[in-house]
Fold these 2 entries.
Entry 1:
Amino acid sequence: MGLLVPILLALLASLFGGLYILGVFRKQRPGEPPLDRGSIPWFGHVLEFRRDTAKFLERMKQKHGDIFTVQLGGNYFTFLMDPSSFGAVVKEARTKLDFNAYVRKQLIKVFGYTQIENESKFLHDSNNRHLKGDGLVLLTESMMKNLQNLMLHSVGKGGDQKAWIEDGLFMYSYNIVFRAGYLSLFGNVSSREAGSTEKSFEMDRIQSDELFKEFRKYDQYFPKLNYGLLSPRESIEVKKLLRLFWKTLSIPVLNNKDNPSSWVHELQQTREELGMKEFMQDRYMFVILWASQGNTGPATFWLLLYLMKNPEAMAAVRGEVDRVVKESGQEVGLGGPKVNLTYDMLQKTPILDSALEETLRLTVAPYLVRAVMENMNFKMADGRAYQIRQGDRLTLFPYTVVHIDSEIHPDPLSFKYDRFLNPDGSKKTDFYKNGKKLRYYTMPWGAGVSKCPGRFFAMNEMKQFVFFMVFYFDLEFKNPNEEIPDVDVKRWGIGAMQPTRDIGFRYRLRF
Ligand code: HEM
């Protein structure tokens, strides 16, 4: 009897502790946003959320309005669905809303990478030095050369030059953009090691293709990995893939490459100087590969697809591309030099820019998550204020409330290549909600401290690929009545969406 009471008390305490962790006792306090815990303890709404995030959030918005808190897998996420109030999240001090505190955990879970102190500061310094200005010009030039090697190496080299070549539009676009981007950032096979420049070009083609195939496997596991839902067999497979990437991108291998980008080189050097172990530096290289290559290829696919589906848009972009080449004074023929697509030429394509922005509006859907570092009073644009709890996560999902809001972008699900053009041909930036001009009228790159630092390079990469495709090739669908495929709803929140199926197409030289 003497022992029974303490044992019962201990059991009771653990039961309450367990229920507390499962979130059973959490209640909406006065001043807090509506709380919707879902019916399953701890998991909350995670199943419905994962099944189709966009649909789930729309349902919650109908039920609770512009701001609400939901439980997802043991964490509480407060979703803000009013774009006019986004500025208050984006500009809030890091002491209250911190992007990095959230990212740190994701990096360990998804990439096995542990950050060093002040990591985000070093990243920002390197980004500013190498992903803008002169660094961007060099990267863009490198991308152009790698695209020429991958896309145009057989042009003018015998065979039936006017024959149609068939492929899947998604796999073709993703493959080429991934490989050219990877080679531009991480460097080429050394011509000394290969024996000649020609041989190193060939090795680049072969090795980058092998890497893409493995990357694609990881990419397909990614949504499940991100939510911790891999089966034991899949976890083993993902670990195997990670080991392969770490080896392929290991520091000794990279040190042996020609033309590595100064961005990647500096990111690695900084870590070495700060004493990070070499195996962790290798892991970081894969983080960078993922961040830089996971979205660009899929987004480029959609751009080319929309152009092919919209003859008027294709004619406008092709007319612009032909004019830019002509004005550059280059004579392009079968046996002659390839188009030297310079950085300056890419600044003269407002129609392509608008078509790209329209594509990103329709197909890029990231979440922006901030860890709530202290209890805070959050003020919305219309004056309402809410208490947000320390330990929760404040989240934006601009796709549903900005990208496809019909008040901001009329007929929001249609592709309009000139949506971001003013009648005088300049870039359109005036978009309104409730009569007020919006600062955030599309957000494919995120916003604030976490805004994608690679966006200028990404835009150039996508434009360069499409520029070459429409300049060099006639393009047609295998099925003339091809429809735009659905997006794979399991990927909401990750970034660029992917299609549920590939699209057969063919291409052949235009001249
Ligand atoms: C279409 C292509 C791309 C899209 C849509 C995209 C989108 C994004 C978004 C939304 C974020 C912020 C994520 C967040 O807030 O959680 C981000 C972060 C990042 N992106 Fe991109 N990105 C693209 C291409 C690139 C490229 C080409 C590079 C590198 C050259 C790059 C490098 C990065 C890095 C390093 C971060 C992390 C920034 C940080 O931790 O502060 N991205 N990207």
Note: The pocket of protoporphyrin IX containing FE is lined by residues 103, 120, 123, 131, 291-292, 295-296, 299, 364, 366, 368, 444-446, 450, 452-454, 457-458, 495-496 (CB under 6 Å).
Entry 2:
Amino acid sequence: MRCFTCCLFGFLVLMLVSRASAVIVINEVLTNPTLPARDGIELFDNGATPVDLGGWYLTDTDANLTLFQIPFGIVIDAGAYLVFDESALGFSLSANGESVFLTDADGFTIVDQISFGAAPPGVSYGRSPNGTGPVVLLESVTLGGPNSPPIPEPSTFLLAILGLPGFTRRRK
Ligand SMILES: [Ca+2]
């Protein structure tokens, strides 16, 4: 009985820790910025409490989950946003699409991950609705703030037929 109680307690602790971690999401990525903007990753605390992110990791390859370590002492408040640009990260993001991972301080527990495709210049991918939804092309870049609505479908189609990847066309 005592063993069962201990196991139950341990399980509940694990559930609480998991829930505490699960509220931090990768909320937006800018992968094909127009100057002077830079590539960036936005994290969002979608929970009700601050979370100490010191020692957590961000990466764009599952072959190396500890590519960039978030400095110790960085705490994200409930409902707050935190942005790391490419100069802070030490790596840039692919405009042709890839995946981004947020890993716990243990270096292997993936807290959140998103995958996305090619991005038109100056257009970011992000969760819509903000903090909870699927990752879509956003109407405007909102690094550091709540995500905008998605690009309306006809616009997405128009961008797509202009040419993937990068959606760019040279002007004469
Ligand atoms: Ca945002």
Note: Helices lie at 2-22, 86-89, 153-161.
